[in-house]
TrEMBL record:
InterPro entries per the UniProt record, alphabetical: 4Fe4S_Fe-S-bd, 4Fe4S_Fe_S_CS, Fe-S_Ferredoxin
Listed PANTHER family: ADENYLYLSULFATE REDUCTASE, BETA SUBUNIT, BLR5484 PROTEIN
Keywords: 4Fe-4S, Iron, Iron-sulfur, Metal-binding
Iron-sulfur among keywords: yes
Pfam families in UniProt: Fer4_7
SUPFAM superfamilies for the chain: 4Fe-4S ferredoxins
Official protein name in the record: 4Fe-4S dicluster domain-containing protein
Length: 76
């Protein structure tokens, strides 16, 4: 029996400044800066571009300088 870990990322889009550190730190390329939408501060914010690839490693949350990212993990 193989156990896999599925992750999901929640980004506080209001506080995100679009620094892109989370996207660079993501080993699976799950995160990206939203190409068309901006928040109230005028920044493109981070979002899960490919949600199915998230492994819940937490790298994005660790590198976020503003603490905008929460990572959830579930074993399947």
């Amino acid at each position: 029996m193989t156990t896999t870990v599925k992750g999901t990322v929640v980004v506080d889009q209001v506080r995100c400044k679009g620094c892109n550190l989370c996207a660079v730190a993501c080993p699976t390329g799950t995160l990206a800066m939203h190409p068309t939408e901006i928040n109230d501060k005028g920044y493109h914010f981070s979002y899960m571009a490919t949600p199915d690839t998230c492994i819940g490693c937490g790298n994005c949350g660790l590198v976020c300088p503003d603490g905008c990212i929460t990572v959830y993990r579930a074993k399947k």
